[in-house]
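Look over this entry.
=====
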Amino acid sequence: MKRSKKKKPKEKNTKKPQNHELSRQEIREQRRRERKANKRKRIMRGLITVLVILGTIGISGFGVYQAANLGIFNVVEIKVVGNEIIDAQTVIDASGINVGESIFLIDINQANYNINALMNLDELEISKIMPNKIIIRMVESTPICAVNYDNKVYYITEDKKLIEDGEYLRKTDIPLVFGSDAVTISEIGKAVVVEPYWRFDTIMNILKDLKDDDNLDKISEVRMTNVNTYEIVTKNGTVFILWDYNNYLENKAYIQNNLDKNTSNMIINLVAGTKPVIKPR
């Protein structure tokens, strides 16, 4: 008699499938661990960066200290750029900056103030050029003439302010004015009184017209004569003789024509009558 085989009951599969998804709690825990790890990495990177910076600063500071002790940062040159009328040494003296002093101890703002207080300038810039040079860049106020009186030359702007004075002419593209009875100045940048003032006013009006017409650089001299006339001398050696400013305006076109033609070495008398009297010099 055959025995019937009993079937074994199937065992339950208690293993988790490989594609088991993490629970929300497990995901939060995993992210928390990742954040902590990333934070530690950021802190370490920050510490390393700080240490590198501090090390660099320390090494640089020590190098600068040693260089300063050796005088590497002591000023060896002060260069003035843009000056035409004012002597470079005058600018350097006014700045208060000295060769040999540490470039780190120079107060640029104070030097700027010192120069502007003594000079009539349109622009001024002072720069430190490491390790040991100073550059002073400047634009002088524009003179309309230079008045010659008592063996000195006074550079004057269109509004009669003093730019500088000296013993010789440094700027040759402006007219030199002769025939003054007196010149009174107070300080650089202030108004100058040239006597006789009413005659000098006439000259200034003529010079302003010449400047507006781009003729100022063609004139070498303007003279106030003893016979109360004015003489305009061109760089080509021609002399125009005038009574006053109105006489100049009446003959302005004629004068312009001669300037355009570069008339040279002639005396052109515009006060003798209705027509110019011309003769060679």
Notes: The first helix runs from residue 24 to 69.
